[in-house]
Amino acid sequence: MVVFWVLPSGFRTYLFFSACLFLFFLSAGYFYPYRTAQGSLQKPVIVIDPGHGGVDGGTSDQQGILEKDINLAVALRARDYLQHYGLNVVLTRTSDTDLSPFVPGKTGRHRRDLEARIRKARESKSLFLVSIHCDWSADKKRRGAVVFYNPNSAAGKKLAAVIQEELNKTQAVPKKEAPGRYFIIMQSGVTGVLVEVGFLSHPEEAGLLRTPAYQDQLARAVAGGILRHCREQALD
Ligand SMILES: [Zn+2]
């Protein structure tokens, strides 16, 4: 303290304002990579949801490769990237399993499965949920990755736009994020987006989706979008 007062007054003022500025940015969370929705400084939790699994294969390509396996491969890679950059990642499944086993004679398995995924996101207090899927269309020409968001969620739309932007860097034809009324992203209290990483009905794209290299490219884009969104949010 004594040292502070023997300094020239101009330098003292400079030090004082520097300290104030530092404290201001510190309180604003500027020096922390991310700020969670609750405003606390712990690492944010991101839920990655590989769609389908177990008894539910999802859609498939001409060769019978199932959507559930591609979803899981992309999700696991995205998790690795996000963890590498210091985020907490919770996967709704890490293997070929469903979250609500088929019970003979009991209906609503699919709904119970989706509810179990949402419960995971709520219990982990996740900042948001990113569900990974593959699309299919009777129109064999349709291709490309599209990110869907809950039309009632501004936060979801923002996240979808950033992930879409990153995905477009890997796409032959850039796409635009779109509103989608999927059950898993329509839940209150959970900001969710659903990424359709490509069309299994498009022969060429289905070929790409089967390769680890392309799965890795998609995972990197999804993770890159999530990371960018976290940083931009922290600076808002
Ligand atoms: Zn699906």
Structure description:
The chain has a single domain, classed as Zn-dependent exopeptidases (Aminopeptidase), CATH 3.40.630.40. It has a six-stranded mixed β-sheet with strand order 2-1-3-6-4-5, sandwiched between helices. α5 packs across α7. With 236 residues, it is of the alpha/beta class. The longest helix has 24 residues. Helix content is 44%, strand content 14%. 39% of the residues are buried. It binds zinc ion. The site of zinc ion has 5 residues, from loops. Zinc ion (ZN) binds next to loops.
Question: Which structural traits does this protein have?
Answer:
single chain; about 240 residues; alpha/beta; Aminopeptidase; 6-stranded mixed β-sheet; 7 helices; 6 strands; binds zinc ion
By CATH, the architecture is named: 3-Layer(aba) Sandwich
Query: What's the domain count?
Result: 1
Rg calculated over all Cα atoms? 22 Å
Instruction: Extract low-pLDDT stretches.
Output: 25-40
| Strands, count | 6
Which superfamily, in CATH terms, is the homologous superfamily? Zn-dependent exopeptidases
Structural class: alpha/beta
- CATH class label: Alpha Beta
CATH topology: Aminopeptidase
What are the secondary-structure elements, in order, as H or E? HHEHEHEEHEEHH
Count of helical regions: 7
The percent of residues in helical segments reads 40-55%
Average pLDDT score: 87
Strand arrangement, major sheet: 2-1-3-6-4-5
Strand content range: 5-15%
The ligands bound in this entry are: zinc ion
The biggest sheet, with number of strands, parallel, antiparallel or mixed sense and barrel status, is:
6 strands, mixed
Q: Give the overall shape, derived from the CA principal axes.
A: globular
Distance between the termini: 36 Å
